[in-house]
Amino acid sequence: MITRFPKEVIPNWEGLKRCIMREGAPDRVYHIELFLDPEMQDAVSERFGLLKSLDPNDPYYPHRKQIEIQSFLGYDFVRWSLERQEWPLNYDSAQDTAQLTRSSGRNFVNMHRGPITNWEEFERYPWPAPSQASTQGLEWFEENLPENMCVMGSGGFAHFAEHLTWLMGYETCCMALMEQRDLVEAIAKRLLDYYVVFMKRLLAFDRVKITWGSDDMGFRSGPLLSPADLREFVLSGHAVMARMAHEAGRPYLLHSCGNLSLLMDELIEDVKIDAKHSFEDTIEDVRDAKRAYGHRIALLGGIDVDFLCRSSETEIRKRVRDTLDVCMPGGGYCLGTGNSVANYIPLDSYLTMLDEGRRY
Fold this sequence. Notes:
Layout: H1 13-20, H2 38-48, H3 61-73, E1 77-80, E2 91-94, E3 106-109, H4 119-124, H5 136-144, E4 150-154, H6 160-168, H7 170-179, H8 181-203, E5 208-214, E6 218-219, E7 222-223, H9 227-247, E8 252-255, H10 264-271, E9 275-277, H11 286-293, E10 298-300, H12 305-310, H13 313-327, E11 333-334, H14 347-359
Parallel strand pairs: 1-4, 4-5, 5-8, 8-9, 9-10, 10-11
Antiparallel strand pairs: 2-3, 6-7
Helix pairs in contact: 6-7, 7-8, 8-9, 9-10, 13-14
């Protein structure tokens, strides 16, 4: 059981940004995650006593908690975004069988039918207004985040493929692309208009130094929609997000699950993403991705989640070292899981990955 890290990591957001932008060999291993499940955050906090000095009644307790957890684990950022925007969707639920059980169960978007399947439902849908989203958390971080950390602008925007299929239901969306294409076009336009305002407000905060769009587009063998439809309704939107980020001097990272080999050249050359996240060994090992794309974009994470769940400490340390040997030269790689720190990953397996990165 890991109860301490023998080597301290001092946050350095500028070094993280240089690493992502491939500006030479980094001074150390930089760690990155899209997010940690709340159950994992609580388990880490309890084991290492991270929150003892914090007051749970403090209205900014959640913000201080993120600083404590992220800096302790060796991350150079907190992940935050605009808040209080609701997207009513149709959900299914199942019992959570993870060791760090989520008492409310696991919720999944219903992929058969969403809340918008026709024009009447489109007009009736309670579309959120990005101009009314709260910036309270971002305002607090502007004044209180340690100078050596930054805000990773992530969450609530750039879900072009996801929101399109969530709002309609994946099956309904596929049918609508043939039978109600004008409705698909209207939803896609509404999403782009929303995200443009959202992104503009996000980029107004100086402590947001990096932006990270999240948009699952594929499954194990290919994209969820045809490449042509993705170009029209999804990639075009990400290109706008990337352009806005770049004009503001920020990198634009993309998280997307699935096999996107048919789209990678367009994501790099046309959308102009600066980094790609989410790697699954059964699709593409991040070491292979580094060899294929590492001279053009940064690669993030890639220590396969299933591997972390099943492997021994020795196997994890060997995998981390080998991944760093391949991916670190020249910069453009940050260590992390292949997807996110889910509550079903054994805590010590996750901590072993971090520990080996510190030792490298």
